[in-house]
Amino acid sequence: MFVSTKSSSSESSIKNHNHQFKNFKDWVNFFQDQQISTAVKTEQAEHYLSDLIQQVDVVGTEWLDQPAYVEQYFLEQHHQTCALFQAYLERRKQQQGREYFPTVAHAFEFLAKVAPVKLVDGSWLYSSVQNWNRPENKDLIYIYLEELGMGHTRANHVTMYQELLNHYELNSYAEQLDVSYYEQAAVQLALAYAPPEYLPLVIGFNLGYEQLPLHLLITNYELAELAIDPHYFNVHITIDNAHNGHAHKSLQAYLDHYTLAEDPAQYLDLIKKGYVLNDIGKSSTEIITQLNPEQLALKVFQNKALIGQYIHNQKCQFSGKTINEWLSDPAQIADFLKVMLEKGWIVKDAAVEQSRFWKIIDDPDGKMFGVFNATEKQIIKDWIQGATLAARLSTRSKSQLNHQTESVLNHIDQQQIHQLKNRLNRCAAAEQKIDLLIPYVAPHMHHQEVGLWATRQLSQLLFPFQTQAMTYS
Prior knowledge:
It contains 26 helices and 2 strands. It has helices at 10-14, 24-31, 38-52, 67-93, 104-113, 115-118, 126-129, 138-147, 157-167, 171-175, 183-192, 199-209, 214-225, 231-239, 246-260, 264-276, 284-289, 293-308, 323-327, 333-342, 356-362, 374-393, 411-425, 430-437, 449-462, 464-467, and strands spanning 317-318, 321-322. By secondary structure, the protein is mostly helical. It is globular, with a radius of gyration of 25 Å. Strands 1-2 form a two-stranded antiparallel ribbon.
């Protein structure tokens, strides 16, 4: 069943199968390419996963060998997480500072760096939908469709996060990330196209992913405190609950498949391996500990230098170079900023009003007013003021996202939906309709307009009782 391939790292091993995959981002792009068939993606996913699980360490997951004990284990973990969060809240009541995001810039950097994973949210469960006629998959499929918002734009997790990035103008910074940030996203997409025999991997992964982590609670709390819309994170707290939410359904799916397993030992082995796949790549906690707003500010200046190198006055010089010469090479920007500090144009660890450069970019009459958007100015402001001062001054007016109540369809969207609707109407049986709709709820498609429409139809066909209160068109 497994491909026996030994390697010192998962990435070097998996790319032996196909030379086009140079890094994890290549894998993400491959699985998200709508021109590549499901069959080809499944073939590559099998290679990817078979190599990966050769290397995972399942030490410490022995408790998963006892299905009757697993629910109690998760309840204990849940209570422990809640106790740790209460301790956090108590520290905050004692006037201790934010522990994740001292400044708004820290939060913006976090939102950009977790984007590769958030933009494939729930994708690992797509493989369960392709086996929709197996009753034991119903809980997994229901979780997937809820991750897709049952086809409603405001509730679809990917559109929700994309809207967050758009609102705070973080897309360009999310797109410039090192490929290492795509490792966990590649794992989730490989699971999305896992062949049927690897379904226990998906179940094990989902079992771990749907548990309530401490970092989610604190992230939600501190984003709200910084007046950054926390809705995406709050949703994951409410729907992942252990009583009747995704965590509960994940456990039920694990138990249902265990009772039907032909080889329980092999099933549990794959469950454990799937569970530890949650630890592949950069975790949210690791990203938080490595946040560096100074590097983010440097990235802001480097991005602007690409255009700014052509438009400054040649007479103005710093340390023997014109501004255009300084900006001509992104590698020089760090040194240029040091010169700006030495010359007093930027006064670090002080209120930004003391910096001449800030007045130039912030004052409506400043020569560079409008060059930096609101998010970039916030990043620069926090960098200038320094973590201690910026954390104390991090007060912002609340800026809620303007969630769309309805989508405006362009001609192509309307045409695609019209064509799919006609094909659906020609299907005689519900089974045919379901099979027709499934490709449209794939990870690369479900957040597009035709995918959202298809998700609504599929949700109604598979779960008419849960969706009867919703309106479909």
